[in-house]
Amino acid sequence: MKTAGTRFQISEETKWENPAPGIRRQIMGYDGQLMMVKVVFEKGAVGTMHEHYHSQATYVASGKFELDINGEKRILTAGDGYYVAPDEPHGCVCLEAGTLIDTFSPVRADFLGI
Questions:
Q1: Which residues form a coiled coil (predicted)?
Q2: How far apart (Å, rounded) are the C-alpha atoms in residues 112 and 97?
């Protein structure tokens, strides 16, 4: 059986989840090999350090974030992006409210509850 989301994701019609205080996310599209997730942060919200076996590439759509990827810290703002290799520890602190667009390969089955 193939795992896939719907063809179109309309923001107003897509469910929000609250994975941590000051953070909410929408799953914007996926199949078994790829997933895109919109993550909105309030100022001061913390994406705690974690790691997963997925490759991750993220685009900073708005806001300002301090990223920590495997001990290397950088400040990123709108228009920037970053890559996280599989099993690499990473996390962030939101310095100015904003939105990240995460992409994962393969799909984050844990986000889907499967």
A1: none
A2: 26
Whole-Å CA distances, 114 to 2, 5, 40, 47, 88: 12, 13, 23, 22, 23
> Residue 13: CB partners within 8 Å, gap ≥ 6?
none
- Which helix (H) or strand (E) covers residue 63, if one does? strand 55-69
Sign of the alpha-carbon torsion through 74, 100, 107, 35: negative
| Residues 16-60: tens digit of each pLDDT | 999 999 999 999 999 999 999 999 999 999 999 999 999 999 999
User: Residue 41 and residue 96: Cα distance in Å, rounded?
Assistant: 8
pTM for the full model? 0.94
